[in-house]
Amino acid sequence: MKNIKNSYIILFSLMIALYGCQENEYSFGEIITPSNIQVTAEIAGADAANPNGDGTGEVKFMVTADNALSYKFVHGATEYVTLTGEQNIIFSNLGLNTYTVSVIASGTAGVSSTKTIQVDVLATYSAPEELKTKLFNFDPATPNAVTSRTWKIKASKDKHFGLGPVGGTKNAEWYGAGPDEKAGVGMYDDRFTFSSDGVFTYITNGDIFGRNPYVVNDLGPNTDGSVNGADIENYAYEDYVGSFQLTAPGGVETINLSSKSFIAYYTGGNFQYEIFDRGTPNELILKTTDANSEFDWWFTIEIE
Fold first, then answer.
1. Chosen domain end from 123, 145, 177
2. Which 3 state secondary structure label does DSSP give 50?
3. Is residue 271 within 8 Å of 261, Cβ to Cβ?
4. pLDDT for 163-199, tens place per residue?
């Protein structure tokens, strides 16, 4: 009799579990594959006289699709994910080149559709040897060798991290951190390596420092970090690998990182870091504009 009762209990439990699973099957609602993908490309500086752009190699892609929740642009081994359907990509191969970019529109439950676009883009900028030597240990004697150099925030220097007005020309004009002021927040143990093949490697040692809400919006919910005003300290985040390119729009040397890559403090934005000063040996002063164009953020980094 006891065995019969146990059998009923097991059967009843299985029925509940099966019912629960059946209910979950409908939690996505109707699954519709994205369609009607429309992709446009605006080449920076393109006009009637310069149809392939102004030589910066920058292209703004815009995509829309019916029933799409997010988009991914794929160029070679590099991927850019965006919810808005807009993405800037910089093509740095010298001369006039044709590039193929695939756009993946993703919908409910991960269903997706793909469309491919080709663009002819002119790139005329070649970074000077002294910049490449400083940034990633370039050796003109062996120009095709893969070389790299690792950097860190220069915590010992006054105003090694700070902010100022957008377009400002004074380092950390509104606020600059004092020596070692940001110890223990997830910044000083970070390491970022630039390689001559365009690879950008970031070692977080398990956590990072960033601006709220850009960190959460771009990288995911805050599960472990401490919120301190507009900052998130020690936000849990693993090491990652991205890419970078050197350009000089308007003559301003710039490090362009792949989407969601950053240096020392996450600010969102376009992930472009202007090289404000590279005159001091083993040191660079950089600045970038945050996602809301509220501040320019300043960083002094040094070779490890």
1. 123
2. coil
3. yes
4. 999 999 999 999 999 999 999 999 999 999 999 999 9
